[in-house]
Design brief:
Layout (H helix, E strand, L loop, with lengths): L9 H11 L6 H15 L4 E6 L5 H15 L5 E5 L2 H17 L18 E2 L12 E5 L9 E7 L10 H12 L1 H4 E11 L19 E5 L16 H19 L18 E3 L4 E5 L2 E6 L2 E11 L11 E9 L4 E9 L9 H15 L4 E5 L7 H12 L4 E5 L5 H15 L2 E4 L7 H7 L10 H11 L21
Parallel strand pairs: 1-6, 1-7, 2-4, 2-5, 5-6, 8-16, 11-14, 13-16, 14-15
Antiparallel strand pairs: 3-4, 9-10, 10-11, 11-12, 12-13
Helix pairs in contact: 1-2, 1-3, 3-4, 7-10, 8-9, 10-12
Length: 477
């Protein structure tokens, strides 16, 4: 006698799984599960689930996929993500649920030949060519594939939507899903907005007509959607760390424009003190504003054009303390003179080396995307001649400039953690802050770019013993 497999609706299916994992099912997850169940029961085939980062969307969607196969073992599910590794993670999660959920025992096949990390096939009567579940990145080849359910999980990420051309390519690629979907099939988009012109934006022509569920972290009264995991203090800390722009997009689901952000020099905390170098018990220390500095360095974005035209050659130097305060101590426009006996590169490297010695910089990162490619060796020579205990690291920027500037300044200015020495405020830097807009390629931003790269660079910590040979390092171990 054949035993009929157990059946459950999605909320019950999810509750049983969480109970087996010794986890509670939060009210937020019950709400999402009920919505998905209602949409399936109502024969709604175009769905958008937008919920804040960290709410467990992918976990729930993995349960949804396992439940879908529990309900219909002949179904074919395609998971699309920005990267194939992200899609494969969803497939692995669903496979793990099927292996352990008591309502899915009838789905486990006899052999393991079709039970891989990025695809698997459950026990089924249909002789389909496609697996039960398949992971694919957006760049992968889906020609000839067929699916009854397509999950578009975080297909919009910062790297593929920061320009109009990339956004158009993303939409064009996703339009191909309509040719993969079987008649009467379902498409579910899951994600959060990363740009003003977001794929998920309400009213957008691409996803018009889709049934939507949007769950921001805070409701209209400012209450947390998941107070057990995101209490008030944790939300305030998160907003301070990521900045208002990314918090609004990723946590409040508001596809606001980057142009809404203004880099206000008034948000900088001005100071006039110079760092104090100390040695105690054979250990080197650097103190500023009564605090011990634990990291710091410089970032040099070189250029060799005329000082009054083209990009400027800028060195930004600063320090950070243990409380996350950043101190922008110098911004220097490095120049050269045609009448000088030395070549332009040597002149500039000598100025940078002098500043490295005077400011006790432990490291200088140099932008090598272009003209800076041959400079690291020359800079090391001049640093050695200057007697500075400073390392030189090569750096190649891969993020868009506007994205770098936003990521660096937005959180620090909002949290009032960016201090600036009064000398930096007498340069072009404050005016660059006032004039900067993400969509204005003609605004001068040399100082902003160098400072942003300095802030985003990994802090270099002091070793236990001071470095040799000529001067002791000051960074805390």
């Amino acid at each position: 006698m054949t035993t009929e497999p157990l059946r459950a609706d999605l909320p019950e299916f999810a509750w049983i799984w969480n109970h087996l994992q010794n986890h509670r099912t939060p009210r937020l997850h019950r709400r999402i599960a009920r919505w998905l169940q209602q949409r399936v029961d109502g024969q709604d085939h175009r769905l958008v689930l937008m919920a804040f980062r960290g709410c467990g969307k992918s976990t729930l969607v993995g349960l949804f996929c396992a439940w879908w196969l529990h309900r219909d073992p002949t179904a074919r599910i395609l998971v699309l993500a920005a990267e194939s590794s992200l899609a494969a993670r969803m497939v692995r999660h669903t496979r793990r649920i099927i292996e352990r959920h008591p309502f899915c025992a009838h789905l486990i096949p006899d052999g393991a030949d079709a039970w891989a990390a990025d695809r698997f096939t459950v026990r089924r009567d249909a002789a389909w060519r496609d697996p039960s579940m398949l992971a694919q990145g957006l760049a992968g080849n889906t020609t000839g594939a067929r699916a009854d359910l397509i999950i578009c999980d975080d297909v919009e990420v910062a790297a593929n939507c920061d320009t109009a051309v990339k956004r158009a390519e993303l939409r064009e690629r996703l339009a191909e899903t309509e040719f993969i979907l079987t008649p009467g099939g379902t498409i579910l988009y899951v994600g959060t907005p990363h740009t003003e012109d977001s794929l998920y934006r309400a009213g957008d022509g691409f996803l018009s007509g889709y049934h939507r569920l949007e769950i921001p972290l805070l409701d209209a009264e400012g209450r947390s959607a998941w107070p057990e995991r995101f209490p008030e203090a944790a939300i305030a800390d998160l907003k301070a760390r990521v900045g208002p722009l990314h918090f609004a997009r990723q946590m409040l689901l508001e596809p606001i424009a980057a142009e809404a952000l203004r880099l206000d020099p008034a948000s900088l905390i001005r100071y006039a003190e110079e760092p104090e170098f100390r040695e105690a018990n054979g250990r080197a220390q650097l103190w500023l504003l009564g605090r011990r500095m634990v990291s710091g360095g410089g970032f040099w974005d070189p250029a060799f054009g005329r000082p009054d035209a083209g990009d400027g050659s800028v060195l930004a130097a600063g320090y950070a303390d243990a409380d996350g305060n950043h101190h922008l101590h110098r911004i220097a426009w490095i120049t050269q003179h045609a009448s000088h006996p030395d070549d332009a590169a040597t002149q500039q490297c000598r100025q940078v080396a002098t500043l490295a010695r005077e400011l006790h910089l432990p490291v200088i990162r140099i932008e090598t995307n272009g003209l800076g490619r041959f400079l690291p060796g020359l800079l090391r020579r001049e640093i050695a001649r200057a007697g500075a205990a400073c390392a030189v690291l090569e750096h190649a920027s891969r993020r868009a400039k506007a994205d770098r500037i936003l990521a660096a300044f937005d959180p620090l200015l909002a949290a009032r953690k960016l201090h600036a020495h009064e000398s930096t405020l007498r340069t072009a830097f404050p005016q660059e802050m006032r004039d900067w807009r993400p969509d204005n390629p003609h605004a001068r931003d040399d100082g902003l770019d160098a400072t942003a790269s300095l802030i985003l660079a990994e802090p270099t910590r002091l070793p236990v013993t001071p470095p040799a040979p000529r001067a002791a390092g000051w960074r805390g171990g």
